[in-house]
Every structure is written in C-alpha cells, then in structure tokens.
C-alpha cells in the first residue's frame, strides 16, 4: 500500500478503535480499527531522506536539490509550472541533509520500461517534461520521449547527477548565485550548473533496504533458539548461536549444539 508523504513537524494521528458491534450480526470489522504493525514491517517504515548515489537508487519519492547559492529544489505548482522552490528542512546549509517541506517539491521516480531512463511524476499526477527548446513543465498525463530522463552520476562530484533529456541536453539552472534561478533543459555540456543532488526516501534505496532486511533476519530471541534446539541453552551457547546467525554459519552451529546436548545427556 502506498504511504502518504510525511514531513518534519507533522503531528502523528492516532487511530481510534471502534467498539465491537453490539448486534453481533457477523459484519466484517471496520477498516478504521487500529492495526498492530508486525516487526518485519519496520524495514518498510523508514521515511528518512538519504542521497541517491547510483542510477539504480533513483526510485520512489525524490527531490532534486539545485546547485544554487541559496538552497532550492525543483518544484511544480498545480498548473504544471516548474520553478525553484526554497528548501527549509536543511542542516547548516549542507545540501546532503535536505528534505522537502512542501508536497510540490516531491516527484515520484519510476524507470521507463525497457530503458535506463526515468519518469518523474509530480504531486498533481502530471509528468516532468522538457520541450525541444528546453522549457520545463509538468502538464502531461502520459509518458513520451519528452517525459523521459537519464540520470548520469557526475564523476568528480559523488552523490550528484546530471539529468539528461532524450535530446541529449541537460537540465541546468540559469545562475548559481540567484536565490530563485530559472531551470531549463537546454545545456549542452556537463558543468556545475547541471549537477543536481537527488534526495530519496531510505526505504526505497536498494542497498539500505537489503541491509535492513538482513539485520531483521539476524534478530532472534533466546526462546526461539531454545525451541529450535529442543532444550534450554547456556548463556555461552545462546551467544554462539546468535553470532553464527550473523556470520552465516547458523545451521552448522545448531547441529553442533544439538550433538553436544546429546553427549551431555548420555554422560550424565
């Protein structure tokens, strides 16, 4: 299920449980009843914003942080006008900490089928587009070549991308010193004004997602270990099995502990 975007400072709403149906007519429970979140879903609940580092990272909600003097990002209003929007959620001017505070700043990135290119859908359901003279807009509801972009990592500036159109031009800003620069798509070469930082939600980043899933798999309680072995464990045995689970030798360690338990039983 797609989750609504949340921003810093938003108050978390509390789900209210409805009382049980007094008539007992067997109707399905209301969907408004508060749900308990399983432990494994914590992997999908990470809404922190991180920097995309590779082309494969660019997926899900993203913001394009512009190389302007004052922190700004690419945004679109409800009419599809693209503009530079000031960033408020940023620590000590460090662009690597930027987060959106306005839904107009957020784009949903998806890979265009059969290509290495991406499409970017705005908050109003329209796609970012660049016409033949380099004018950006977000007014189209379908994807064509003008709504397809290639995110090329910048070699000498890790964590940044040059966003290329299908006409092999690049998105850029008109001035790096302006507080509200114009954004166009007609730059012919990669330069500092074309280097955009793409920030994304951590739960969509493949490497971080894999690491979190791996850590979730590593967690196991002492009771679960004792259920697998079939007897109570000593502190040393419990530590050994947990370490083996982290290091990938879990099944061999379980076998060793079981064999040791049988030997101790016969010895007594």
Count of runs of 4 or more consecutive helical residues? 4
> Low-confidence stretches at least 5 residues in length (pLDDT < 50)?
24-44
- Global structural class: alpha+beta
Helices and strands, in N-to-C order? EEEEEEEEEEEEEHHHH
Q: Provide the residue-averaged pLDDT.
A: 80
Strand content: 15-25%
Distance between the termini: 56 Å
The rough form would be described as: elongated
Q: How many E-type strands?
A: 13
What would your notes on this structure say?
The chain is an alpha+beta fold. It is built from 4 helices and 13 strands. It has helices spanning 206-218, 222-229, 235-247, 250-267; strands at 49-51, 60-65, 72-76, 82-86, 107-111, 118-121, 127-130, 136-140, 150-153, 161-164, 170-173, 183-187, 195-201. Helix 3 packs antiparallel against helix 4 (250-267). Mean pLDDT is 80; it is low at 24-44.
Task: Give a short synopsis of this structure.
This protein has 4 helices and 13 strands. The protein has 268 residues and is of the alpha+beta class.
Defining key terms:
268 residues, single chain, two-stranded antiparallel sheet, seven-stranded antiparallel sheet
């Amino acid at each position: 299920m797609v989750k609504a975007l949340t921003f810093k400072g938003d108050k978390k709403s509390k789900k209210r449980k409805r009382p049980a149906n007094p008539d007992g007519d067997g109707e399905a429970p209301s969907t408004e009843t508060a749900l308990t979140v399983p432990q494994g879903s914590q992997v999908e609940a990470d809404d922190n914003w991180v920097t995309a580092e590779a082309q494969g990272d660019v997926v899900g909600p993203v913001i394009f942080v512009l190389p302007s003097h004052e922190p700004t990002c690419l945004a679109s209003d409800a009419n599809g006008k693209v503009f530079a929007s000031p960033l408020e959620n940023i620590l000590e001017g460090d662009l690597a900490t930027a987060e959106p505070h306005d839904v107009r700043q957020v784009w949903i990135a998806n890979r265009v089928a059969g290509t290495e290119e991406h499409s970017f859908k705005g908050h109003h359901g329209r796609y970012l587009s660049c016409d033949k003279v380099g004018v950006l807009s977000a007014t189209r509801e379908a994807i064509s070549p003008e709504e397809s972009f290639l995110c090329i990592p910048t070699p000498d500036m890790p964590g940044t991308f040059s966003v290329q159109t299908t006409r092999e031009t690049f998105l850029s800003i008109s001035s790096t010193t302006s507080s509200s620069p114009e954004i166009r798509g007609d730059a012919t070469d990669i330069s500092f004004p074309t280097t955009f930082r793409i920030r994304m939600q951590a739960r969509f980043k493949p490497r971080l997602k894999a690491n979190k899933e791996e850590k979730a798999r590593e967690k196991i309680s002492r009771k679960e270990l004792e259920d697998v072995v079939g007897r109570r464990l000593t502190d040393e045995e419990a530590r050994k099995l947990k370490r083996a689970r982290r290091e990938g030798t879990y099944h061999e360690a379980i076998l060793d502990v079981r064999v040791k338990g049988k030997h101790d039983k016969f010895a007594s």
